[in-house]
Amino acid sequence: MGNVAVLGVQWGDEGKGKIVDFLAQDAQWVVRYQGGTNAGHTVIVKGKKYILHLIPSGILHPGKRCIIGNGVVVDPPELLREIEELQREGIEVDDRLFLSETAHLIMPYHKKLDALSEKLKGKRQIGTTLRGIGPAYSDKMARTGLRVHDLLRPERLKERLEETLKVKNLIIKEFFGEEGYSFQELYQDALAWGEALQPYVCNTVHLMKKVIQQKDPVLFEGAQGALLDIDHGTYPFVTSSNTTVGSIFTGLGIPPGHIHRVMGISKAYTTRVGGGPFPTELKGEEGQCLRDRGGEYGATTGRPRRCGWLDLVALKHAAWLNGLTELTITKLDVLDTLKEIKICVAYDIEGELTEEMPADLDTFSKAKPVYKTFSGWEGTVKGATQWKDLPLQARSYLEYIEDALHIPIRIVSTGPDREETIIR
Ligand code: GDP
Ligand code: IMO
Ligand code: MG
Asked: Please, which residues bridge with residue 328 across strands?
């Protein structure tokens, strides 16, 4: 199968976890390269549900090996909890999970600062997952972050933590008027995390080089989606990492040329969790119907997801940015009961029609969707495993999408379970 990148092309939660798990059957390595515990990737195997936040979804396949690359931000106690949960389910993690020594850490003060700065923003809050993502990536860029290997070097950890904690405590206490952190307590906790994580830590850049040179098939598991990209998404209503394809190279330390297929994952409609403009959002009953049928509640925070029609303008933007070679459409079954289905084919921005997504948020906020309407299918696609078993209307809907994007749809997901999948 070569090396395949699996990337969200909307605002996250497209069903990447399910598709990575499905494709992992043919891979040897499944790797994460950006994002952190803000991700919630759901995998359902024979009715049993797993939600993964940091560990690549390939871990559920015995024998497949998983890497958490340098571009990921790692919350050590959360990672340890995830490892323990899997072990409790009888899933072996030792010798199958490799953690980059240079991945940056999400520390408890990052989570606190995430919450405090959201509160400060009031009505203009981003609606983050409160997992400390923004503050941790900020420290990385400011060169004040702690990395995984600092946990394994007590002297250096002491120095770096002392230095950074001084500033964090000043902000937390003096600016926000909240309680700060005790150096000793945090230092002892961090040493314990280091000891527990030590067996997984290695130089993943060297490991990836070996994997690629020996031509082991690799799946690159993206987190979030293209429209949440820090550079190309709906800034400031985005996450704090690049969610588009370039992150694979920097987040793992591999040169270009080793990604053979770039698969974009999109729902058959659109969802978004958190703040920010969403031109095709359905606020009334129709939106609620999609939320109910799709079970659209966040895998990480449980928040109800905002729901709306598919947006081809945004998808085209994501397709270009990522150089998609193919598409997967998930949750087709959610549209089963609808009489009519709409796709946004252009934006009307103050009377001007455009098929390009504006970069400026004020302009994007004014975009009114121009729709093409499709008739729904009478019957159900739930659980279908063959393209030919899809009703004609469902096939027309999908064919319209691939024609408009000039990208073939290779996989259609017709239910949350691993088996409920069509390969074309
Ligand atoms: P991810 O973050 O991209 O991995 O997606 P999430 O796991 O956050 O959200 C996707 C949700 O949709 C999960 O609850 C999945 O179990 C579910 N799901 C995935 N594919 C399908 C599908 O084809 N049909 C239905 N009904 N649910 C799906
Ligand atoms: P997966 O990998 C959906 C959203 C948050 C918020 C914004 C910033 O499961 O698709 P952050 O905590 O990253 O600072 O929040 O990004 N967000 C996601 N939305 N799926 C995700 O991940 C997300 N990760 C972050 O809701 O709007
Ligand atoms: Mg998710």
From this structure: 265, 411
pTM for the full predicted model: 0.97
Q: Does residue 209 contact residue 201 with C-beta atoms inside 8 Å?
A: no
What does the pLDDT look like over 269-321, one tens digit per residue?
Answer: 999 999 999 999 999 999 999 999 999 998 888 899 999 999 999 999 999 99
How is domain 4-95+204-423 classified at the CATH fold level?
Adenylosuccinate Synthetase; Chain A, domain 3 (3.90.170)
Q: Where in the chain is the domain with CATH 1.10.300.10?
A: 104-198
Please tell me if the CB atom of residue 306 comes closer than 6 angstroms to any atom of ligand 2.
no
Name the CATH superfamily housing domain 104-198. Answer: Adenylosuccinate Synthetase, subunit A, domain 2 (1.10.300.10)
**Best mutation site among 330, 421, 423 for ligand 1, i.e. most ligand atoms within 8 A of its Cβ?**
330
Establish whether 41 is a catalytic residue.
Answer: yes
Interval 78-114: pLDDT, tens? 999 999 999 999 999 999 999 999 999 999 999 999 9
DSSP letter at 228 equals G
Catalytic residue selected from 21, 41, 114, 229: 41
